[in-house]
Design a protein that fits this description.
This protein is an alpha/beta fold. The chain contains 27 helices and 22 strands. Strand 2, helix 3 and strand 3 form a beta-alpha-beta unit. The longest helix is centred in the middle third of the chain and has 93 residues. The radius of gyration is 40 Å and the shape is extended.
């Protein structure tokens, strides 16, 4: 059963998690619904910061505030708050739910999908975002395509308050008259505003309100503060009106800059959460409002205060002022309607509006007494050629961004589907485990039945002995044939019964053994299938490689054959044959000999984890000495993920802390170790920025958790790194790396040479790395992770660590650094020590999880060529060759 349009429901839910201005513009629609359905119970979901204003718009409504911002956070980032909202909405039992937010978002879909409402209506067309739908289906089990069943189509240029009335009309089943927003303020806010104005000598109706900031949601739409300051000065000089600057406490610096440009003592009102009604009262007493497109502008329109609005491209013209007297100053550009995703980065649409444009609009409103005076003033300060060029550039930017987002969403969608598949595989593995348990039970039954058989055999032996005794007894009895025959017959029947029982037991035992054999054969076949699958895959790769070789040779043969008919064919044929002979007989043997001589016979080889017998650890003594003052150094944030490493973790911590770097922020993220690790870490707690021991989802998750405690303290040029709890940093490395970054602002990522150590901190090898080669990084992972440092700006560009990686997470991060355009270099010094021991993750999963993850990274660079083993081998040989050359130069004192 569904509700007909216009039928009054008992309960209505509305999701309106937009900004303050959107809430003001929604007032006419909400008031119209309340008047048409006076008995209905309305529940409206809004942002918590706007609760005090909402109660003034519609006091009888049940406002449901939330801290969730669906445009900035995903559904998995605050699950407790999302569960609370869903529970409250289900308890309200709405018959109708409305998605009234101007931009469709995941929170509207989740609340509609879990509300149980019979009628579900949304603003705008039906959403068709596969990534969006996949995330909700896998993460929350919600079908996004079925969340809403009715959609209200609206014109692109209709103001938002008109769109909202169209939603209300669709709910009521009839069109509604256009009624602009109005707002009534109580006595308490007016009294607080009057006290504020009196203290600053401002008379109601004789001052101008200027909102020179309003960038809490979109910083780009803010007109420069110096221009606002010039406008304020001209209003005071030409019209004799004082000006009150208004804004949020967080915008103080911006407003002070505007006041400084205005000159003289300009009063300011700085609000905080819960003071929106006082702001409305201050706006209501003004003779004029001047400002950007902000929520305060729509407050002024709803309070019948004349408005001069400075507009940019963003969502124009949906947010034009709705009051009776208003002037909107805009500079139309071909990129309008961008949603503030500016292709040029600095919003030239609003930046091109001059002070004269705005002061002319102010003069028009102050000198025109007409009760209804609304216009849009279009200023055009750019030549046509420039606007055409901007249109083309903006279109290319948005097309490229759309393609990039589409690829990113597709990748994340495939990742989510892959996780869903992994979950299904885990379920199958659970079934296999259950089958193994059944087999174990059957095997136990077999052991039990074997015991029964042995007992029966012993019982039969006893019976046979008894029978022998009976026979002897019968022989000793008096000669009574009839009585003796009956006794023997009875004994025979008893023995046959026992033998029959024994055969039944043996049959049951055989059936149990057959069942167990079948189970074992099934499990064996399953493992064999997996093994042969891997072998076939490897065989297929070899066949493709051989096929390419055959095709190359066939091409040479065809070339030789085709050229045989020309006058120069014999010479070309001879040249081709000689080239092939030289390549096969001379160059390839020489290349192999050179590689053996320079690389394979040299003690230092990249990729080999043991070069010589254990010897005392010797750190690099040629690392440059400190040269810069502490004040010029960047912060260095290091995270050590740890689990069950009580043997090594103290040595790792000391290698960092004992360097006494003045701007170190060190975090230790333990995964709830069950050995003595926690007690060791606690001893260093007073020297750490943060530490905790909680369960995590693996190394990548632990690193992300650790950096979450310090990234908000870092600037874009500060330095980050992670150091595993079994590795070491070299002495003085932190100071050297910090000074290197300070002296080379163009560098984003650095790494260096590696020392290999054993369980006892004794040196067993060294990797002397060649200079960085971006092409090699696309095919193989050769960068020593414990020597790697990067700037926070690179971390932000790459998007941080990918929690789906458990083995190749360092290579994945480096690959995304490189793809994001970061500048990577290798420095010619030994920066860290990599420990080789029996329990390390590298040796345990490199051929399973590691191989799969490395294949994923190569696919990101090269698509279907990810398994081109010839290219992989070529880059590996080149890296080893250049490393051997670098090592030989290093041995003679040349750091190249």
């Amino acid at each position: 059963m569904t509700l007909d349009p216009g039928t009054a429901p008992a309960s209505v839910a509305i999701v309106k998690v937009d900004t303050m201005g959107d809430l003001v513009l929604f007032a006419p629609a909400l008031q119209a619904l309340g008047a048409a359905w006076p008995s209905a119970r309305f529940t409206v979901v809004i942002r918590r910061a706007y609760v005090d204003l909402a109660t003034a718009i519609a006091p009888a409504v049940n406002w449901l505030p939330t801290t969730l911002d669906p445009f900035a956070r995903g559904p998995d980032q605050d699950t407790s708050e999302l569960e609370r909202l869903c529970a409250v909405l289900r308890a309200a039992a709405p018959e109708v739910i409305v998605a009234a937010t101007s931009r469709r978002n995941w929170l509207e879909t989740v609340l509609a999908g879990t509300s149980g409402a019979r009628r579900r209506l949304a603003l705008g067309g039906k959403a068709d975002d596969a990534f969006f739908a996949t995330q909700l289906r896998i993460g929350l089990g919600i079908d996004a395509s079925a969340a809403y069943t009715e959609f209200v189509s609206v014109a692109q240029d209709d103001p938002d308050w008109v769109r909202n009335l169209q939603i209300a009309g669709a709910l009521l089943g009839r069109p509604l008259a256009s009624v602009a927003p109005t707002l009534h303020i109580g006595e308490a806010p007016r009294a607080a505003a009057a006290q504020f104005l009196s203290a600053r000598g401002l008379i109601p109706g004789k001052y101008v309100v200027c909102a020179a900031a309003g960038f809490a949601n979109v910083a780009l739409k803010t007109w420069p503060p110096d221009r606002f300051g010039t406008v304020v000065r001209r209003i005071r000089e030409h019209h004799g009106l004082p000006v009150l600057l208004i804004g949020h406490e967080s915008e103080r610096t911006h407003l002070e800059s505007a006041a400084a440009t205005a000159g003289g003592d300009v009063p300011m009102w700085l609000g905080r959460e819960g003071m929106l009604l006082e702001l409305a009262a201050l706006v209501a007493g003004a003779a004029l409002y001047v400002g950007n497109d902000t929520g305060a502008m729509h407050l002024a329109g709803a309070l019948d205060v004349p408005v001069v609005g400075v507009f940019g491209g963003g969502t124009w013209p949906r947010f034009r002022p709705a009051g009776r007297r208003s002037v909107a100053v805009v500079q139309p550009l071909p990129c309008f309607g961008c949603g503030w995703d500016c292709a040029f980065g600095d919003a030239p649409c609003i930046g091109g509006i001059t002070v004269d444009d705005v002061t002319a609009a102010v003069a028009a409103l102050l000198t025109n007494p007409a009760p209804d005076f609304s216009e849009t003033r279009e200023v055009r300060h750019l030549p046509d050629s420039t606007t055409k060029m901007m249109g083309k550039a903006a279109q290319q930017y948005h097309d490229a961004r759309h393609d990039h987002l589409a690829r990113q969403h597709k990748l994340e969608e495939l990742t989510a589907l892959d996780r869903e598949k992994d979950s299904a595989i885990l379920e199958k593995e659970s079934e296999i485990a259950a089958l193994k348990a059944v087999c174990n039970e059957r095997e136990q039954s077999i052991f039990t039945l074997n015991g029964h058989v042995k007992n029966l055999q012993a019982h039969i032996g006893t019976l046979e002995a008894n029978n022998a005794v009976l026979e002897k007894t019968l022989r000793d009895l008096p000669p009574d044939a009839a009585k003796a025959a009956r006794a023997v017959a009875d004994q025979t029947v008893h023995i046959r019964n026992i033998e029959s029982l024994l055969r039944m037991r043996e049959q049951e035992l055989a059936e149990a053994r057959a069942s167990a054999a079948n189970r074992a054969a099934g499990l064996h076949d399953l493992e064999q299938a997996k093994h042969y699958g891997h072998l076939l895959s490897e065989k297929e790769r070899v066949i493709r490689s051989l096929r390419r070789g055959c095709e190359e040779r066939e091409s040479v043969i065809r070339q030789l054959s085709a050229q045989a008919t020309t006058p120069t064919a014999k010479a070309r044929k001879a040249w081709t044959a000689v080239s092939a002979w030289v390549r096969e007989k001379a160059w390839r043997p020489f290349d192999a000999w050179l590689f053996r001589a320079l690389v394979e016979r040299y003690w230092m080889q990249i990729g080999v984890l043991r070069h010589y017998d254990p010897r005392p650890l010797q750190w690099d003594r040629r690392i440059p000495r400190p040269r810069l003052a502490d004040a010029s150094l960047p912060q260095v944030a290091i995270v050590t993920p740890s689990y069950g490493q009580e043997t090594f973790v103290e040595r790792t911590l000391r290698s960092v802390l004992d360097q006494h770097y003045p701007k170190l922020r060190y975090v230790v993220q333990d995964g709830a170790s069950k050995d003595g690790s926690i007690a060791i870490i606690e001893r260093f707690a007073d020297r750490l920025q943060h530490w905790e021991s909680v369960p995590d989802k693996g190394q990548a998750d632990a690193i992300s958790r650790g950096f979450a405690h310090v990234t908000n303290m870092l600037g874009p040029d500060d330095v980050m790194a992670w150091l595993n709890s079994d590795d070491l940093l070299g002495p003085g490395v932190l100071r050297f790396v910090a000074e290197f970054f300070a002296q080379h602002p163009e560098i984003d990522v650095v790494y260096g040479h590696r020392i290999i150590i054993n369980d006892d901190d004794r040196e067993i090898g060294r990797w002397i790395m060649p200079r960085h080669d971006p092409a090699t990084l696309e095919w193989i992972d050769y960068v020593p992770q414990e020597t790697m440092f990067w700037r926070k700006r690179a971390w932000d560009l790459a998007g941080g660590i990918d929690p789906s990686f458990q083995f190749a997470l360092d290579w994945d991060l480096l690959a995304r650094f490189q793809q994001a355009g970061c500048h990577l270099v290798r420095v010619p010094y030994f920066l860290g020590a990599f420990r080789v021991h029996a329990n390390q993750k590298t040796s345990q999963v490199i051929h399973t999880t590691g191989a799969d993850e490395m294949r994923r990274i190569r696919t990101r660079f090269h698509g279907e060529r990810h398994d081109d083993f010839e290219t992989i081998e070529r880059h590996a040989r080149e890296a080893r060759f250049r490393g051997a050359v670098t090592a030989r130069l290093h041995a003679v004192g040349i750091r190249w």
